[in-house]
Design a protein that fits this description.
Number of helices: 4
Shape: flat
Structural class: mainly alpha
Order of helices and strands: HHHH
Length: about 70
């Protein structure tokens, strides 16, 4: 929670809200490493979808900022 507070302070609430979705991905990785939990194909597909969604949001947000600057 301390790290999340730092992220909110640095990026702002709106930008950092997108990255809360990384929580399941980091939990999957941590449980596989530390608890030796099996990683299933459905969890890999779900993690990929989360990362793809973050990429899409970041891509379009960047393009909107660039378009607003050029006006």
């Amino acid at each position: 929670f301390v790290l999340w507070s730092i992220v909110i302070r640095e990026l702002g609430a709106l930008s950092s809200a997108n990255y809360i979705n990384l929580s399941p991905v980091s939990t999957l990785i941590a449980s596989a490493i530390f608890l030796k939990e099996p990683v299933t194909w459905i969890s890999i597909v779900g993690s990929f979808m989360i990362l793809l969604g973050l990429f899409i949001v970041g891509f379009y947000t960047k393009h909107e900022k660039d378009e607003n600057r050029s006006r």
